Amino acid sequence: MRVTTQFLSDTVRRDIQARLEALARAEQQVSSGRRHERLSEDPIAGTQVLKSDAALRAIVQYRRAVGAVRARLDSTEGVLGQVTDLLTRAQELGVAQVGSNANAQSRAAAAAEVGRLLDQAIALGNTRIGDEFIFGGVATQTPPFQADGTYVGTAATRQAEIAGGEVVEMVQSGQALFITTGVMTALRGMRDSLTANDIAGIQTALGNLDGSMDGVQTRLAEVGARTRELDGALTGLDVQSDAASAQRADAAEIPFEEAVTNLAAVQTALQAAILSGTRVLQTNFLEYYL
C-alpha cells in the first residue's frame, strides 16, 4: 500500500508543530522561571502549589497575630515597670511617715503625693494601643478603670491564634494586673492612712505595698516567659514558611540551568524533526514520480 504524499506531509507538519509548541513552552520556562503557565498542565503539581500558597497565607496571618500579641506584651512590660516605680515611691513615703520626725502636716503632704501616684496607676491601667484600651479584657472601646480606680472591664481576655491550633491570651486584663495584684488597694490604703494620720494604718499599708510589689514582679516574669514563647513561635513559623516555599518552588518553579538545558534539547529535537521531515518528503516525492 502506497503512503500518500498528503499523509506524510500532514504527519511531518504535526510533528514539527508539536516541536514548535514544546519550544514555546521551553522558552517560556526560561523567561518566567515557571514549570507551567496553568495549573491544569500538571494537576498534581498544581495541587501542591495551592496547598503551599494556603500554608504561606496562614503563616502571614499567624505572624501578624504574633506581632499584635508582642506589641501588647511590650506595652504590658513597660506599664508594669512604671507601676513598680510607683509602688517603690509609695513605700518610701510610707516608711518616712512612720518615723518620729513625721507629723500630721507631713503626712498630709505625703498623702497628696500618694494620691497622685494612684492617679498615675489608673492612667496606666487605661493604656491604649491605637483605639483600643488594652487592659479592658474583651471590652476594648471604653476605659477599664474609673477615676477612683474601680475596674469596669472584663476578667475574660481576647485570644489570638499564633500557629495551627495554638491559641494564646493577647494581653492580661486590668483585673489581673492591677486588682488581683493589689496595686490599687495598696495605693489607696496608703493614701487614706496618711490622710487620717494613722500610723498603724500606714504600717499595714506598707505590708500591702510589699505584697502588691511581689504580685507585679510575678506578672513581669510571666510577660518575659510569654515573650520567649512568642519568639519560639516565630522560629517555628520561619521553619514552616521555608518548607512551604521550598515545596511550592519544587512544584511551580524550574531552575534556570534546567530550563536552559531543556530549551537546548527541544531546539535540537526541532531541528532534527525538520531535517527528517524534509528527507521523508523528498524521498516520497521521488518515489511517486520516478
| CATH-defined architecture of the largest domain | Up-down Bundle
Using the CA coordinates, give the radius of gyration: 38 Å
- Can you write the helix and strand succession as a string? HHHEEEEHHHH
Structural class: mainly alpha
Q: Helix content range of the residues, please? A: over 70%
Tell me, briefly, the overall form.
Answer: rod-shaped
Describe the strand arrangement of the main beta sheet, using strand numbers: 1-2
- The name of the CATH topology of the largest domain is f41 fragment of flagellin, N-terminal domain
Which range does the strand content fall in? under 5%
Parts with pLDDT < 50 across at least 5 consecutive residues: none
Separation of the first and last Cα atoms: 17 Å
Secondary structure tally: strands = 4
**Number of domains as seen in the coordinates:** 2
CATH class term of the largest domain: Mainly Alpha
Q: How many DSSP helices?
A: 7
Report the CATH superfamily of the largest domain: f41 fragment of flagellin, N-terminal domain
